[in-house]
């Protein structure tokens, strides 16, 4: 375990976001007891808000390699982060902070780098020394990901990125990493997470995925009126999904005919 405790000391006047979430009223500290912590809750419950603030507190590195402090969109996260205290077994900057939107931008930028390098090579003589920087770019990307990202689907590129970027003794903050993945590929992601955990990595994951929530021995936390431990079978999302899959037409009929 790298990160072991998160303490919260609210400001005196905190009626506005990001200090007005219901669970914050009774939240003082969170002890992290497992290598994988799962944050669950409805849209708007504050899962991403908490994850962003943890990332902002220690200026986590974004998946792109940029520092979080360089992004003004995290101003609210930094405001909340100033009221958090993180306790570490040992502090690390290894790992990254992931959001699904950032992944889309990252893949587009990486594919743009590939396309640009390929285009430049097409216009340079085969023996020209000017080709070297572009060849190095393509070689570095291929070496890191072991596949041609330019030929992969969105979900395939996502898994290739995680295969390449999950390392031992690193902290990963993942906000809805299931977004680009089919259920089968979510299981593949779960296997990658498990391998990284076996090598000393730690994960805090905000998710709506029943598959990721099923990670064995994960610390499951529900955000709502409180921030509290929850069993898998008690998660509202799981209960609803089971009822829907038992009789989807009943749900759809009442929805469309109400």
Overall description:
This protein has 9 helices and 9 strands. It has helices spanning 47-57, 75-81, 100-122, 132-145, 154-165, 183-198, 210-213, 236-246, 248-257; strands spanning 3-8, 29-31, 36-40, 84-88, 95-99, 171-175, 202-206, 219-223, 227-229. Strands 5-6-7-3-8-9 form a 6-stranded mixed β-sheet, sandwiched between helices. Helix 3 packs antiparallel against helix 4 (132-145), helix 5 (154-165) runs parallel beside helix 6 and helix 8 (236-246) packs across helix 9 (248-257). The longest helix is centred in the middle third of the chain and has 23 residues, at 100-122. The model has no long low-confidence stretch (mean pLDDT 85). One of its GO terms (molecular function) is ATP hydrolysis activity. Residues 33-227 form the AAA+ ATPase domain. One of its GO terms (cellular component) is plasma membrane. Its main location: membrane.
Task: List strands and helices in order, with pairings.
Elements: E1 3-8, E2 29-31, E3 36-40, H1 47-57, H2 75-81, E4 84-88, E5 95-99, H3 100-122, H4 132-145, H5 154-165, E6 171-175, H6 183-198, E7 202-206, H7 210-213, E8 219-223, E9 227-229, H8 236-246, H9 248-257
Parallel strand pairs: 3-7, 3-8, 5-6, 6-7
Antiparallel strand pairs: 1-2, 1-4, 8-9
Helix pairs in contact: 1-2, 3-4, 5-6, 8-9
GO biological process, one term: iron ion transport
GO cellular component, one term: plasma membrane
Domain AAA+ ATPase: 33-227
């Amino acid at each position: 375990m790298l990160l072991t405790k998160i303490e919260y000391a609210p400001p005196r006047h905190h009626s506005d976001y990001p200090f007005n979430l219901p669970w914050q009223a009774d939240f003082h500290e969170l002890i992290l007891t497992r290598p994988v912590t799962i944050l669950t809750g409805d849209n708007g419950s504050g899962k991403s808000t908490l994850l962003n603030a943890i990332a902002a507190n220690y200026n986590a590195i974004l998946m792109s390699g940029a520092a979080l402090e360089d992004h003004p969109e995290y101003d609210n996260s930094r405001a909340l982060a100033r009221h958090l205290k993180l306790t570490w077994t040992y502090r690390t900057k290894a790992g990254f902070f992931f959001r699904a939107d950032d992944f889309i931008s990252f893949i587009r930028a990486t594919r743009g780098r590939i396309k640009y390098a390929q285009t430049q090579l097409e216009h340079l003589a085969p023996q020209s020394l000017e080709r070297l920087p572009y060849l190095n770019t393509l070689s570095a990307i291929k070496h890191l990901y072991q596949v041609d990202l330019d030929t992969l689907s969105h979900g395939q590129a996502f898994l290739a990125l995680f295969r390449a970027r999950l390392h031992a003794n690193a902290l990963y903050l993942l906000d809805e990493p299931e977004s680009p993945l089919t259920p089968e590929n979510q299981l593949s992601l779960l296997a990658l997470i498990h391998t990284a955990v076996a090598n000393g990595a730690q994960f805090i994951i905000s998710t709506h995925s029943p598959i990721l929530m099923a990670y064995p021995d994960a610390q499951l936390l529900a955000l709502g009126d409180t921030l509290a431990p929850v069993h898998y079978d008690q998660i509202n999302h799981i209960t609803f999904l089971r009822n829907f899959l038992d009789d989807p037409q009943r749900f759809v009929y009442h929805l469309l005919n109400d």
